[in-house]
């Protein structure tokens, strides 16, 4: 990936945050064996600031979509309070093996970390940390479902474990689809193919006197066919993706370097971002509740 390519994945940028569309397969941190990771590309996202942006939260290596970066210490502190306080609205799209019996529902199942032999995994455990995921079925066909997930807590692997707990594991999940530990993930990726989980949208009530910052990530190529098979309108999604790419490329090529903000956060005011709603906003798009 080149600096131009990572900048083309910017969904939103203002004085406090940069939101990017993370590709699936790219870890956010370097692993014990090294290799490509997001940290190698952060310098390309400075846009005139002295420091590189830093992660405000995380996505799994195999998850694509909206990822928020804070552009300075105070921005990261504010974002940290928002995530911890449950004030960030996150929307994920998943394709599952198996269809839930109900059209929508909530999984309220605490999670804990376990190390069964090699590696580790998260499991449902009444003594674990509280974990809640709201979900609804957006489409289904052939024993698979297109599910919108809205996690109300931010536990490791939460959506993956909760969907498996429902009897509907994510297609391609290298750990929970087969019930193996994390140490076996690489060999399971080869067997199963890409995991079908996408961080579709995120909303940040970042500025008290402005509308929330919103970003929507187009469906990645590795999920397109599977989503179309369970009901997604591919033509509408294509039109949305083209508009997003055009806007991102234009911004990356023409935007001037940003002015470093003043030290006092209270004096900052950002511009709200009204993201395109995308296809199916009342049903499967970002606007549905």
What are the segments in which pLDDT stays under 50 over at least 5 consecutive residues?
263-289
Helix content: 10-25%
Number of helical regions: 6
N-C termini distance: 35 Å
Structure description:
With 289 residues, the protein is of the alpha+beta class. Helix content is 22%, strand content 25%. It is built from six helices and twelve strands. The longest helix is centred in the last third of the chain and has 21 residues, at 234-254. It is globular.
How would you summarize the topology of this molecule?
Blueprint: H1 3-7, E1 10-13, E2 17-22, E3 54-55, E4 64-70, H2 73-84, E5 89-97, E6 104-108, E7 111-114, E8 121-124, E9 132-141, E10 144-151, H3 158-165, H4 185-192, E11 197-204, E12 213-216, H5 221-229, H6 234-254
Parallel strand pairs: 4-11
Antiparallel strand pairs: 1-2, 2-4, 3-4, 5-10, 5-11, 6-9, 7-8, 9-10, 11-12
Describe this protein with a few key phrases.
289 residues; alpha+beta; Pseudouridine synthase; ten-stranded mixed β-sheet; two-stranded antiparallel sheet; 12 strands; 22% helix; globular; disordered C terminus
